[in-house]
Amino acid sequence: MVTLMFTMTGLCAGCGDYLEGTSGVITSPNYPNALAAVRDCRWRFSAPPGRRVNSPSEFNLPRDESTGICLSYIQTFNELYWSAHPSLDNVEKICGNTLPAALNSSNANFNLDFHTHGLAPGQGFSLTYSTEEESMCGGLLPLPSGSISTPNFTLQNGTYVDCKWRMTGEDQGNQTLVFRFDYVDVPGHMANYCREGVVYLVGRLFMGRTCGNRSTEVLLTTPFLSSFVRLIANLGLPMRGLPGTYNVSNCGGVHEGSDAQIMSPGYPIGYPPNSICHWLFIAPLGETITLTVEDFRLEENCDKDSVLVRNGYWTGAPLIGKFCGTHAPAPITSSGRYLTVFFRTDATGSAPGFKMTTREVQRGCGGLIHTTSGNLSSPSYPTSYGNNVECRWVIDYVPGYLVKLEFTGRFDIEMDSTCSKDYVLIEESSGGDRWTEVAKNVDKLIQNRL
Length: 450
Fold this sequence. Notes:
5-stranded mixed β-sheet, 2% helix, 1 helix, repeat, mainly beta, single chain, disordered C terminus, CUB domain-containing protein
């Protein structure tokens, strides 16, 4: 049971920007004149796939003559998938009047922060950046098929590798993009959200992730052919990477905004071996999806051929059920606007397959919010919420404002050490379809009040 109040607070005009060009110049406020005011600025750089940010600079940021403490300084860090807001306590503060070495990112996403106390201000800085330098891995992958691999990594304490592979080619619709990795050897554990290393797949939505040492085949799929795969890992830990292949199968796809009908490949004659199909159904905000099975005939062994239905859009969404044989499930209704159907068969045997229909139903939990204040609550609050529930609220606020979230009533969610069962996740948009985690740990949510 959760109730949450939100309000918007005005933010004065400042500095910083989100930069996606191949080159350019940024300067501190009032450069080259002194700035006798407190300022905190952040510039976010995003390089094309396979490139990284190179930023030679010139600057004059003073130190305190007696203590050597930086009165004005810059800090740089690579933006990692689990947080665009890392702690900067241990990140070097760069100041003085001697030109530092070039500030090179290790990946395509790079942040630069500038802070000044307004005390004994210097001229500031002027920084010229470019994205001409190649990154150590990543790039463009042509559709419909190909291979993906990583270089031999050298142990480097305190350094992260960040590789992004983006698909190029025409999206025909009603297809599934399939990645098969021979193995995955990346630092990290699924129980702590792969914080030391991760491989993840993103289309229009975040589709799935994996990490750790997995010696057998690892599968990642998406119905969005316009997607990318990203590897981030701590090079202070040993790793082998993720060799594998990818291909497009002619089944699956995204159904959005209307009722739909889907069938297994070859229905009703029989589906082919080694089929992989990924369907995603998306209803309008505030509506749910009801899935009805009209015909269902698979092999009896669920380890061979099966259908998985998830209450959400990614591989970690709550599993509603795994079905095989002729045991068709009763109609299934999602708790939110997303529902996933995943079909996979093995190399032997076949059966007629299945036919299913979906319809959109008013009303689920979640939705798009345009108001400047209001209240959110979990389904059925103040009584208990149900099982396998996934709700997503999007607060669309005016540029130049901040959103304050405060838990005002009872906060009673099933607790476990990793928050992997029931949780409240707060994210913020990083531009476009990029979302970064602000908080997920229940204790932090309550203590910080966001």
